[in-house]
Amino acid sequence: MTNANHTLSFSDPETTKPVQRDAARLMVGTDLAAEMVAKAAERAKKLQDETGVQPCLATVLVGDDPASATYVRMKQNRSKKAGIGSLSVVLPAETSTEELVAELTKLSEDPTVHGILLQHPVPSQIDERAAFEAIAPGKDVDGVTMHAFAAMAFGEPGFRSCTPGGILRLLEAYDVPLEGAHAVVIGRSPILGKPVGMLLLASNATVTYTHSRTKDLADIVRTADIVVAAVGKANFVRGGWLKPGAVVIDAGYNEGNVGDVHFEEASQVAGLITPVPGGVGPMTISLLLEQTVDAAEAQRQTS
């Protein structure tokens, strides 16, 4: 799952003089994600064999954005491989908030559906938060509701936001010490930046949130033992911003398979770094499937 260090020659951003240092080890999520999906598949099969209930993930797509449609198809394909049923709901781009809420409410009340994924972003006329809150907490396997955020913040039972939860699993797999570490989160979205900070805090890291209004951002990032980039801008975080040996988690995905971190620069300074693709992305989908099986098991116990 990890790869051996190797030495590169690069130019120091402060002096432009060639120096030598070990390149960062890659934090690859593909193998760990495959293990998680395999275990979820075993649990899904056991549940179906013992009860006749197949875990089912409902995906809701509003409009015909090609990227969103591709993501949904990928999640459906992964579900099938894991023995998880899928229900696809595709709504027209002009769908209103009320119509979307009604559809999500119907799925929440459907006993054959165990998890619900609303593909985001949604068209601009829709109140995304209202749509998310229409998902029953017990079926919020993507961890997007306020209930899920509160559970993460207070350490109570509930589903984790999939990308933040996947990041924590990846950090654990690579034995990254979180207790006492200074983590800087770049971005404050309600389904990525904010929850990943809460999960890091729950692991006894000291967390600094940064965002578009933050002053002296590079100076703050240089103090971080762990950097989580979730800003949605290609190559935004530069190598010269990093403390040598820092752990760098690139949660961005931009056009051309480019993350939020300038990988070539950062990999020459960091100790550990996630690639894009192949780092955080696989973890997100695997946790979604794992939590869908969790939801099916929980709903079976209470039915």
How does this structure look, described?
Residues 1-20 have low confidence and may be disordered. β7 (182-186), α7 (193-202) and β8 form a beta-alpha-beta unit. Among the domains are: 51-136, Rossmann fold (3-Layer(aba) Sandwich), CATH 3.40.50; 162-281, 3-Layer(aba) Sandwich (Rossmann fold). The strands form three sheets. Strands 3-11-10-9-7-8 form a six-stranded parallel β-sheet. The protein has a three-stranded parallel β-sheet with strand order 5-4-6, with helices on both faces. It is an alpha/beta fold. It starts with 6 loop residues before the first strand and ends with a helix. The longest helix has 23 residues, at 280-302. The protein contains ten helices and eleven strands. Catalyzes the oxidation of 5,10-methylenetetrahydrofolate to 5,10-methenyltetrahydrofolate and then the hydrolysis of 5,10-methenyltetrahydrofolate to 10-formyltetrahydrofolate.
